[in-house]
Structure to design on (296 residues):
């Protein structure tokens, strides 16, 4: 499990232990755990019958990852999979962002997954889970680097699947109890004003149980876009998704001739049970948006 300096990786480690994994290697650039996350770490290392090994490794560096792989082979550990949760946030508006900020964000995500893939090519991995972000799915103001780095993870998961390997990319929303969003309260407030609720540990654990080891790129976003506030930086997104929801209801009723009962979105795309219906609605809206861009 990479990115184990903070709570996100450690939460994942604890989840894996609870699912029956008996030997974990927790990887972070420093090999140190932040003081705010020592409770999670202590719970992992004190779990009866479980061996937890902490390794300092910068996953963006080829030599570091190769050295880690060598140490694991020398210890006769059989690696069955990895969870890549490492990441760096370095926000700036599009007009002010620098290439260094892109490099800072891309390095752990893009170069990290490439290095992990390179050393695991000969291993019969049972799973490869990449932690992406809702920023890849919906975009996020001031996070063009973060959005695109996570979009790369999504594409890489598809690439691995085409190679015949099991790969899952999870586009996480903002967590409220661990990780970056917890430490930066404004991040949770921002997405909530867009109609997106934060992810509690309970919701995150349930999502992992459902998605772990399953091929695909999946967004985990507790959302009610119709409840979003019309903020200056999210008005377009709010109106856009509200329109999709409305069209989705009409499409559902037209195709099936019955009332729509939504799960979280109270109608629309989220309530369409058929993949083809969802694709038709979203494709229609994307084409409309592209036509408007071309006209302007």
């Amino acid at each position: 499990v990479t990115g184990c300096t903070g709570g996100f990786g450690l939460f994942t480690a604890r989840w894996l232990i609870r699912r029956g994994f008996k030997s974990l290697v927790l990887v972070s650039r420093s090999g140190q755990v932040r003081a705010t996350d020592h409770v999670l770490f202590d719970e992992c290392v004190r779990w009866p019958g479980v061996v937890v090994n902490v390794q300092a490794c910068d996953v963006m560096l080829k030599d570091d990852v190769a050295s880690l792989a060598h140490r694991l082979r020398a210890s006769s550990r059989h690696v069955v999979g990895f969870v890549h949760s490492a990441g760096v946030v370095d926000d700036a508006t599009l007009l002010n962002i620098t290439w260094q900020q892109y490099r800072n964000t891309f390095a752990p995500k893009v170069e990290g997954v490439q290095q992990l893939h390179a050393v695991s090519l000969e291993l019969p991995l049972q799973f490869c889970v990449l932690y992406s972000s809702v920023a890849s799915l919906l975009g996020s103001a001031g996070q063009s680097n973060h959005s695109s780095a996570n979009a790369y993870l999504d594409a890489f998961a598809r690439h691995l699947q085409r190679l015949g390997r099991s790969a899952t990319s999870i586009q996480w929303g903002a967590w409220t109890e661990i990780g970056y969003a917890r430490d930066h309260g404004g991040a949770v407030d921002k997405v909530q004003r867009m109609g997106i609720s934060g992810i509690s540990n309970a919701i995150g654990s349930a999502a992992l149980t459902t998605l772990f080891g399953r091929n695909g790129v999946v967004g985990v976003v507790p959302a009610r876009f119709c409840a979003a506030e019309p903020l200056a930086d999210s008005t377009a997104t709010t109106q856009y998704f509200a329109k999709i929801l409305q069209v989705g209801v009409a499409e559902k009723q037209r195709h099936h001739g019955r009332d729509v009962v939504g799960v979280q979105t109270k109608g629309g795309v989220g309530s369409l049970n058929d993949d083809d219906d969802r694709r038709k609605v979203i494709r229609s809206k994307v084409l409309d948006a592209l036509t408007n861009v071309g006209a302007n």
